[in-house]
Amino acid sequence: MTATAAARTSPAIAAALDGGRQIPPFSAQGAGLSLETAYRAAAHLRALRGARGERQIGRKIGFTNRAIWAQYRVDRPIWGDVYDTTLHRLSAGGGAFRLAGLCEPQIEPEIVFGLSAAPAADMDDAALMNCIGWAGHGFEIVQSIFPGWRFSAADTVAAGGLHGALLLGDAIEVAQLPDIHRALATFELVLSCDGKVIDRGGGASVLGSPLAALRHLVEELAERGSDPLRAGEIVTTGTLTRAFPVAPGQTWSSAISGIGLRGLTVAFG
């Protein structure tokens, strides 16, 4: 797919996202789709959404959990954008969320960072940690505009990283989280649906630590010449467990141990 053709994909993707409908994956059409071209297509989608008033407020990192690569036929992490229209702040440990308009939604428990300074690719872990003002726990609701969750990694990039919504719980200042560097790599999480344990995971599932996932994103942006992360952006670092289909009428909850963040309970309608 040429750069010109990639630019033409963004209106089709935006229409699919807006209408909650699915389209064939681009990688299955004609000349296929490279990752480089897909990121150009994603930039066009970002510009289109910005032109209609949506504000990019951060990034999402996808496929940082290597355990799910084979399931989705991908072989590397990807990234996409988070918007003011897709961020939903929860209170008191949870809330409610309507899934209407999302295509084959799935739930992913994640660690979210709020940046207080712009990170750079040459920073060591201590300097990178100093760029994080707060940490929080959230559920990313991902969606697939490609039927049956069948796609290439490039397809997911062009479609905005499969991002549907980010449901964010409490944001805790990093200075208030003891031994945060170690805790990010060792904490554990249990994911449940309607009171039944569905999966277990933790910080080590995300490229070894959510901090490592952030580093991957910073380096990836630098290598591709993409817009770097800025102070004030949020970054959701990838799923701590496998992703699971979520449906109206279900209540999903997480329980976290080993880090000073509390779990969430969300009722879906």
Structure report:
This protein has 269 residues and is of the alpha+beta class. The protein has a single domain, classed as Fumarylacetoacetate hydrolase, domain 2 (Alpha-Beta Complex). It contains 7 helices and 13 strands. It has helices at 3-19, 35-51, 69-72, 125-129, 153-158, 180-186, 210-224, and strands at 56-62, 78-83, 87-89, 94-97, 106-115, 132-142, 163-173, 188-193, 196-202, 234-239, 244-245, 251-257, 265-268. The strands form 2 sheets. Strands 1, 2, 3, 5, 6, 7, 10 and 11 form an 8-stranded mixed sheet that branches. Strands 4-13-12-8-9 form a 5-stranded mixed sheet. A hairpin with a 7-residue loop joins β12 and β13. α1 packs across α2 (35-51). The chain is globular and about 50 Å long. It starts with a helix and ends with a strand. The model has no long low-confidence stretch (mean pLDDT 94).
Provide a short characterization of the protein structure.
This protein has 269 residues and is α+β, with helices and mostly antiparallel strands.
List keywords for this structure.
Fumarylacetoacetate hydrolase, domain 2; alpha+beta; 13 strands; 31% strand; 8-stranded mixed sheet; 7 helices
